[in-house]
Each structure stands twice: as C-alpha cells, then as structure tokens.
Amino acid sequence: MATHTPEQSALAELDRLTRTFTQATTRLDEAREALHEGIVRHLRARSAPPGKLADHTPYDRNHVGRLAKGAGIPPLRGPNAGPAPEYDEQVEAAALAELDKLTAAFTRAEAKVEAARAPLQEAIVRHYAERTLTPGVISAHVPYDRNHVGRLVRAAGVPPVRGG
Questions:
Q1: Residue 82: predicted pLDDT
Q2: Nearest-10 Cα torsion for 69, 72, 74, 76
Q3: What predicted TM-score, i.e. pTM, was given to this entire model?
C-alpha cells in the first residue's frame, strides 16, 4: 500500500475539488447559454413582450434588450422599430413557462457553483495555513492565480508565510 505525503494528499484534494468546481462552472455556462438562446428565440418570435420575458428570467429588461440587440432583433420602438407585434395569450404563456424552466435550471447551476466554490476555497486556505503548500503550488492546481490565492488567504485572516 502506497503512503502519501501531506503534500500529495493536499494536491489530490485540490485536484478533486477543482474538478468538481470546473464541472459546475461548465454546467452553469451551458445553462446560461440555453437561457440566452430561449430569450432570443422568444424575442425573435415576438412570443411575449420583452418586459414580461425579463420578469421570468434573472435579468432586468435592459439586459434582455442587450441580448436582443446582440442577436440583431429590431426594437419595438424608435426609428429602427419593427412592426408592432400582436401577442397570443397561449403562445405567451408557453414562452413564459419555458423561460421559467430555463431560469430554474440556471439558478440550480449557480447554486451548484457556489456549493463547489466554498470547499475549494476552504481547502486553499487550510493548506496554506498549515504550510503544506505554497501559493504558487496551490495556484497550479486550482482555477485561481497566485494573487487570488493570496487574497483568499488574507480574507480568511491567515498570517503570511513571510514577513508581516
């Protein structure tokens, strides 16, 4: 049976926590992309007014407008406005229900990222405080650079390795 040094165990833990965090952020990016695609699809189809679409997403009306502009959808008012849409109640209800599902998936993905972030940051601080690993070694095994590792450690109140 192989024995592991404290450094090897710490690196294995950081690698495992980083993998979990990275998977969660990937799922969050996918959920965000699906939500944005749903918003743009319904804006393009004029399924519901932009304000109502925004009410069923985590974004405000202005951000929904930026998504529309980025997708090349003409505004409802102003000199470049498209024709005034007529909204069907059933189509609107279906669009809002779809956005509710996409928003719920996005919110769950955000929560999973936060749930994965906490143990990763706790392990970073713990291994630094125990002097098991240096900031440079830690940063090679986590998604943060060594300056961010230093900020996490200082925020936790751990005294620096050198000086101060």
A1: 66
A2: -40
A3: 0.85
